[in-house]
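Before the break, one more example. Copy the sequence into your notebook; we will annotate it together after we see the structure.
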Amino acid sequence: MILKLMSKKEKQLSKPSEEFKLAIGHVSSIEILCELCGRGHFSADENSFEEGEFEKLLKKHEENPDKYIFHSDEDSVIYGYINGKQAVVDCPCNELSKYETFFWNHRYIIEEYFTARANKELEDAKENKDLADKVKTSIK
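Here is what the structure looks like once it is written out:
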């Protein structure tokens, strides 16, 4: 369970969908920083921490529960990477929803770009294959 008060900004951001969180979250850790908002997250698996570290994190959480999020029902915190940053999938900042909204709202542009890019790379690959075949036949 994540305990904290949400700021007005966070209340305005909707949570990312389960589908998007599954697409992003491919790794987990007992302690991780959400680089989208700067919050630290840690899990309840106190046996996996070095001696005294879990207690230090709990103390930080008690002093500043908005900055140090304790996932009391989790053995690890799920995260992934987006735009080169670590992103905790269940972070209360909900910054992932901005990316999801962007991707969804621009899906036709993205599809058109992927198609054009893949076709260009296929064309380049065919040219390289033809060149490799010519080199191979010339050295026989």
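The longest helix spans residues 107-138. The CA atoms of residues 34 and 87 lie 5 Å apart. Try to locate both features in your own notes.
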